[in-house]
Specification:
By secondary structure, this protein is α+β, with helices and mostly antiparallel strands. Helices cover 25% and strands 38% of the residues. The strands form two sheets. It has a six-stranded antiparallel sheet, covered by helices on one side. A hairpin with a 2-residue loop joins strand 1 and strand 2. The two termini are 20 Å apart.
Length: 105
């Protein structure tokens, strides 16, 4: 896991706003349980205690996938995002699903 991804996860766990390089974490001022993660200004995840919603932000890049997998590793270890033949998929336990932006894991 990259340093920026560790800092991103720490900010979410501690429920503090944070920005580093091209990644930003914003805590909802009306609901401190909910954090939104942005990459280059595009929303790529919403994290709260009950769910993690993942988005591609319009860019299915290696950086987006890396950030999403860092979030999954920390908050939903049974899930992850991978690519095969240029197509993204979500692994959840032993199941594999096509990646749909906004998926709840």
């Amino acid at each position: 896991m990259r340093k920026v991804e560790m800092q991103m996860n720490t900010a979410i766990r501690n429920r503090v706003n944070w920005s580093g390089g091209n990644t930003t974490v914003m805590i909802d001022p009306d609901n401190a349980d909910q954090a939104t993660v942005y990459l280059h200004g595009n929303r790529i995840a919403q994290v709260c205690s009950e769910f993690v919603a993942i988005f591609d932000g319009g860019w299915q890049s290696n950086t987006t996938k890396s950030r999403l997998n860092a979030l999954c590793q920390e908050f939903r270890p049974q899930a992850g995002v991978f690519q095969k033949d240029w197509t993204w998929f979500i692994r959840h336990g032993n199941s594999v699903f096509p990646f749909i932006t906004g998926s709840l894991i």
